[in-house]
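Help wanted!
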Amino acid sequence: MAGGVGARFWPYSRNSRPKQFLDFLGTGRSLLQMTYDRTAKLVPKENILIVTNKAYRDMVLEQLPMVSARQVLLEPARRNTAPCIAYAAARVYAANKNGVMFVVPSDHLITKEAEFIEAAIQGMDFVANNDAILTLGITPSRPETGYGYIQAGQEVENGIRKVKTFTEKPNAELAKVFMDSGEFYWNSGMFFWSVKTIRAAFRKFLPNTFAKFEMGLAFMGTDSEQAFIDEYFPSCQKISIDYGIMEHVTNAHVLFGDFGWSDLGTWGSLYDTLDKDDNSNAKPKGKSLCYDCHKNIIVVPEGKIAVVQGLEDCIVVDTDNALLICKKSDEQRIRQFVNDVSLLEKGDEFI
Amino acid sequence: MAGGVGARFWPYSRNSRPKQFLDFLGTGRSLLQMTYDRTAKLVPKENILIVTNKAYRDMVLEQLPMVSARQVLLEPARRNTAPCIAYAAARVYAANKNGVMFVVPSDHLITKEAEFIEAAIQGMDFVANNDAILTLGITPSRPETGYGYIQAGQEVENGIRKVKTFTEKPNAELAKVFMDSGEFYWNSGMFFWSVKTIRAAFRKFLPNTFAKFEMGLAFMGTDSEQAFIDEYFPSCQKISIDYGIMEHVTNAHVLFGDFGWSDLGTWGSLYDTLDKDDNSNAKPKGKSLCYDCHKNIIVVPEGKIAVVQGLEDCIVVDTDNALLICKKSDEQRIRQFVNDVSLLEKGDEFI
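Answered by r_m:
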């Protein structure tokens, strides 16, 4: 899944270049490229499908030159994750009625790759042999209030438990209780299922969406596929897979582990994953000299130097035509700032 | 005098483009241009001499296209103000032994031009008729610790008093006493004298410098002038006119007034002169959206937008290849920051 916009990382991410296409950590590979690299260790490369917005087609093919255009599924409109997954499931089902899917966002970070791959193999094996929807849960390392939680019940096999409930972002007190209980995992937004299982779930809980792609099955993989999608995709209900499917199914399971995972949802969560200097400043990109600075994240373009003095707990992100300075504690307001910029500036050159 | 570097305004000013060449206030005219415009109301345009560093020759002629190359005196090395003034005095004396000089820095701000011009006419008249060194003193409007002060004695004529002492930058307590006494004026670094008077002072207090330019008199205004200057100027003692001459002479006078003057010595003093928004933020250049911000000065290049949240009493200056964020209270450290940048980066692209 590579169709998101990532407004919370403005001005580093833009509508024209969202988060998944950026080399956030200065490793030389974008989040999308790292996701592809990981996935290519799990399945035959030609079986990797990238679902993205039409606007990002060329950027996907440029960043992943080993991928053929046929592997890139193009959404003509933003309809959240449920229609995206229904489309991919139709494509897989048309090719192989016994297919198994592993669905991953392309803008997350995984630092413990070996553990991740081991779990993914177990997960794919589990859903190939069970009529189960399986989510990847992350063992919490802190009482994070920014993530959704999965409450797990009885263990089915080693590391896999039945899901009791999906819980939205808790407050700080509740997050502490969740973490201490040992019953809760972070919801990573990664899923395993057989196409048969997910089709049954769509048929039951999102029947209109199911019907559209059922009608489209005959076009999948043909020259008419895009025309069909352009016609029918935009009228799909805009809903996430969590709200549309996961919260209703009775066969949800969670495979849990510690994969050094972060959804990099905000500058603050990126800050948490980065190396820091002696004063806890993270400088993932560009050169900066810091004086009397603590706990900042500072991102500067190549070829530029920042001199920063007297700043605490701030986000400083500089790009060619936009500069953001914001307290980390106020980062949820960045989306509003971007709205204000777009109202003020009319055009979209800054957003 | 237009040879200074202005490191305190880094990164907006650079070695390659110092403060006097910048349009600091967004008026469309650089400080040098504004200084020329003012001076041209006082004296025949062809009598205006601009002393600058050789490196800035083309920039001066570009910004002042009405000025002939003959009016631009080129220093091959930085030697502070005394040699600069000795050179200009030699050029004036060679042209007119009864000449009168009004010496002005090119990087100051004057907002009350009518009062300034009236005072300048009085000053030039005074030194044409008296063997006096006359400085322009500014009636203090606040107990500023960043300026030098002139203690004045007995009044000689309306607005002109004998100088008792020159005093370096006082501490806050002393500055308060100075201001309340009514005896002290800010030293603006602007001077009036006849060439005869200033030559006598150089002969007595900086005899080596005097001797060099005495030897050079025959070259002034000829094709050999630059060759002479290139040979002899670099060996002049590096010293300011204040230390080298003013503090020793017995015929120093001060002409005082309120000219809306600022030496724009730092971002903080520039901030004081600028219009502010409702939250006391000054934004002299570029677009910026401020949230929860107070008492900042924010300078952004054309075509760029800054979004700034939660900043108080800070300097934010963004340029194409350097960004500065610094507490106003720490602005005296900017010079050190620039040194650090030049050590870190070797080349001079950032300084």
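OP: Thanks! One thing I noticed: Residues 208 and 236 of chain A are 8 Å apart (CA to CA).
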